[in-house]
Design a protein that fits this description.
309 residues, nine-stranded mixed beta sheet, 23% strand, 2 domains, L-2-Hydroxyisocaproate Dehydrogenase, Chain A, domain 2, alpha/beta, Rossmann fold, three-stranded antiparallel beta sheet, 9 helices
């Protein structure tokens, strides 16, 4: 299994390469980034860290992607303190367009995982740019939202994180929809008061911003690394795990021509199925809101890339 990480000198890319290598998920990892010295430093350190394995770790150029099974794109413009991830769309769409051309030249059959913000429109853009437009191979990484949701629910209820389940759908951003109907503790439904729900709704979308306000220049690298490795593992081992991710929709949840977070069955080749769960009335309203919030970004992408046929 060959995995290429683009943006591998950055916080998310380097952490993802490390966690994938440490878990022995790939025979070969290609690390690509224009920051050559930092990239080489990461590759040398990572190669030593997993020297008890047979994984090949090396830096490369786009031409080295030939034969890649999974591409993780974490490349993007520097993300300063911003009000919304959508502010990054114009700059990062240009970057993604350039990268997509290289991917489809050298490894057009690879599963593509987009971890560059704003994830939803950029996953849609990558899909639109692809020659075959097989939507099953395009995954936008948004699992962090559900991880934060579960953590906040567990804290509010005073239970263990490991015993708590919960999923977030919609935008990887402010309009995300927290599915309290999906919450389980020890595999059982639980009742959560409206006051607790409201507090969690306020906290979850702002967790990343609390990182950014520290002005360290970092983002949620370790969180993303563990989640990206989980997606890669599901693909490599064909597990059929249900993982929330941004997927290109074709009728699911009444949507067409956009990518947004949904529960998806992940296995060999990418997305096997998008699960359409029954939503509570307030969740259905939230879904309408997140679709409305995403549509302008999708339209912007279509204007610059081309509409889906």
């Amino acid at each position: 299994m060959k995995i290429t990480v683009i943006g591998a000198a950055g916080c998310i890319g380097s952490a993802a390469a490390f966690y994938i290598a440490a878990n022995g998920l790939a025979n070969e990892i290609i690390m690509i980034d224009p920051q050559e010295n930092l990239l080489l430093h990461h590759a040398m350190d990572l190669g030593t860290a997993v020297s008890d394995q047979d994984t090949i770790i090396r830096t490369g150029n786009f031409s080295d992607m030939t034969g890649t099974d999974i591409v993780i794109n974490a490349a993007g413009a520097h993300q300063a303190l911003i009000a919304s991830r959508m502010e990054m769309l114009p700059k990062n769409l240009t970057i993604v367009q350039d990268i997509a051309r290289e991917i489809f030249q050298y490894c057009p059959e690879a599963v593509m995982i987009t971890a560059t913000n704003p994830v939803d429109p950029l996953n849609y853009a990558t899909y639109l740019l692809s020659p075959g437009r097989d939507r099953s191979r395009f995954i936008g990484y948004s699992r962090n939202d559900s991880a934060r949701f579960r953590m906040m629910v567990a804290q509010a209820l005073g239970v263990r994180n490991s015993r708590t389940e919960g999923t977030v759908i919609g935008e990887h951003g402010a309009s995300q929809v927290l599915l309290f109907s999906s919450v389980r503790v020890n595999k059982k439904r639980v009742s959560i008061g409206d006051d607790i729900k409201q507090e969690i709704r306020k906290k979850v979308p702002n967790i990343l911003r609390s990182y950014e306000e520290l002005k360290t220049g970092r983002t949620a690298g370790w969180t993303s690394a563990i989640g990206l490795a989980a997606v890669a593992r599901a693909i490599i081992r064909n597990t059929g795990d249900v993982i929330p991710c941004s997927a290109v929709l074709s009728g699911e949840y009444g949507c067409q021509g956009l990518s947004m977070g949904v529960p998806a069955v992940i296995g060999q080749g990418g997305i096997h199925e998008i699960l359409e769960w029954d939503l509570a009335p307030d969740e259905q309203e939230g879904l309408k809101g997140t679709i409305n919030a995403l549509q302008p970004a999708m339209k912007y992408v279509e204007e610059h890339v081309g509409k889906a046929s």
